[in-house]
């Protein structure tokens, strides 16, 4: 990914098998966010392909990327504060149904609401259906974000620093949550918190100065002297 | 006791970044603040400098509580902040950048002159570029300007936020020298850094942060040999 | 339809002269916006208030110059008080809030003027009478004087900002108010001072304009409108740009009044505004578009 003269991401290739939780880590300026934005349609890569289940999604606008099955959560909470928790999730769920037909409208709504309630149950926010999203605690808002992403029935869930700013307790709860929803899903997560990364990831990709430095299981990465060096001396 | 933080809590909007930070700096000490990305090191410095207000806990400077005071009052008390992105005044010349710290009440023209000379001696390249606009300097030069500018305040403590970030190795050793000289001058420094070896060398003590709070604290000499702790909190 | 050269030259002089007074108003406005992000809808009313205070002062002291000085000082103090009470608490809030606040202030000031000075217009007698021959016209010396004075005031402001001891405070605060504060610059005081300077400049414009167009309670609106056009065309916060834009807009209008009536000539200003917003929204006279 090239920004003018700056190559932020240089020839990064990685493949994530279905069902894996892949963590992307790297010191400051490694290009993690840029890379993440290329996968999720926020940025159009200057070169290269992003293949989802075999089809190239590089450069597609975010709403089409969502239709193909990539959902993401954001670092700055991106919920609708004036809507209730249930509405937030339902609006996301609606994107999966192409509800143009006015005749079917009533029944489709019930399906959506049930689906939304199910998602809220999965993430542990049941009972908060009618709360205004703005009134949730910070941790609950981050959880709601994940629920919104899940409601779009993605095949790939991208989480951008999901535990940033969280206390130890909230972090543990989030890790639990991600483990729970991980069945059925493939997850790519950018994180700084090493405990989270080591605890959740099936495989880790380390980026450094825009390139892939190392890839492997958590144990392999921890034992890799180059990775340690890069983290401690950067 | 120059600076003390007790159980400081800071939020960005609803995001709870500092979950109770406690640390202290003695006059003239160079203390390191280490930790991975996102643990709250910059926010800690910003809270001390008044850039953000603490939501809880105490910040005490030279015995008086200063939490919640605006940055310009803290600057007058002797706290200088050198931010991570340097924030040089791009449209002001190098000299004008320095003057923003010089034009204070109670400083005579002679003192101003002396301060400028001192800083030009530390950073000859700034003397060369004194009439150049701040925005035209290279990254390393901007870092020097940011530190020089802070020195104009004749501070008792300088809060240095990742001074070596993005700099070439040659500049990194220059930064190390500057920190040394500042220490010789009796200025205390709270140094936030990702460069662990540099920090361990330049400081007498280090705090290590994780998840918005200080989790470990040791003299730097001791920490140097404690690979397990370094791995745990700073490595992978 | 050929327009005679001397008419064009006369309009050039008119445009330049009008442009300088407009520049005086607009520089205050752009400075205020540049430093505290306040869109001051009451700026034209500060011009009006300055003119009224000036008119009263000139009438009681008999001296135009004294009146000018009193008006500027009075409005400086008033501006400072206004900023501290109504605008400072709004710092950092969304722009709509300050727009509404200054709009409200504008209405209050207009009503105040009617209450204080009654509904009738005032006169300010020009300090120098006499005319000189400009081609076929008898051109008043006073008009030239206003241009010279405006230029002098703006020049003084520029020198203060560039070389004055506290000019640095203002320039630093305009560029990065947080870092300026971290350098010990008392930002709230700088904000109040800049607003006071802007108000004083507005007052001076009002008094200078008095002998040319009279002093009326609703003269403010025209000034606000034109000043805004100038500030947008010149680049918000860009002092040099607003001066050039003021001259540019005034020249445009002056030339346009050769072919249409002056009341219609103001349309070219709006055209300039729209074109700027469409193609160079950061301002025509900004060195590099950001």
Question: Would you write up a description of this structure?
Answer:
- The complex is a heterotrimer of chains A (234), B (236) and C (290).
- Chain A has 9 helices and 10 strands.
- With 234 residues, chain A is an alpha/beta fold.
- In chain A, the strands form 3 sheets. Chain A has a 6-stranded mixed sheet, with helices on both faces.
- The longest helix of chain A has 19 residues, at 105-123.
- Chain A is globular and about 55 Å long.
- The two termini of chain A are 22 Å apart.
- The mean pLDDT of chain A is 83.
- In chain B, the strands form 2 sheets. Chain B has a 6-stranded mixed sheet, sandwiched between helices.
- The N and C termini of chain B lie far apart (35 Å).
- In chain B, strand 4 (56-61) and strand 5 form a beta hairpin.
- Chain B has a single domain (3-88, 155-234), classed as Rossmann fold (3-Layer(aba) Sandwich).
- In chain B, 39% of the residues lie in helices and 26% in strands.
- The mean pLDDT of chain C is 89.
- Chain C is globular.
- Chain C has 11 helices and 2 strands; from the N terminus they run H-H-H-H-E-E-H-H-H-H-H-H-H.
- The interface between A and B is medium-sized, with 28 and 23 residues.
Oligomeric state? heterotrimer
The CATH architecture of chain C can be given as Orthogonal Bundle
Q: Please report the first level of CATH classification, the CATH class of chain C.
A: Mainly Alpha
Helix content of chain B: 25-40%
Structural class of chain B: alpha/beta
Q: Within the CATH hierarchy, at the fold level, what is the topology of chain C? A: ABC transporter involved in vitamin B12 uptake, BtuC
Quick one: overall form of chain C?
globular
Number of strands of chain B: 10
Helix fraction bin of chain C: over 70%
Give average pLDDT of chain B, whole number: 92
List the chains of the largest interface with their residue counts: A-B, 28 and 23 residues
Query: Given this structure, which CATH class of chain B is correct?
Result: Alpha Beta
Percentage beta strand of chain B: 25-35%
Give the end-to-end Cα distance of chain B, rounded to a whole number of Å: 35 Å
Mean pLDDT of chain C: 89
User: How far apart are the first and last residues' alpha carbons of chain C, in Å?
Assistant: 42 Å
What's the number of domains of chain C? 1
SS-based class of chain C: mainly alpha
Q: In what range is the share of β-strand residues of chain C?
A: under 5%
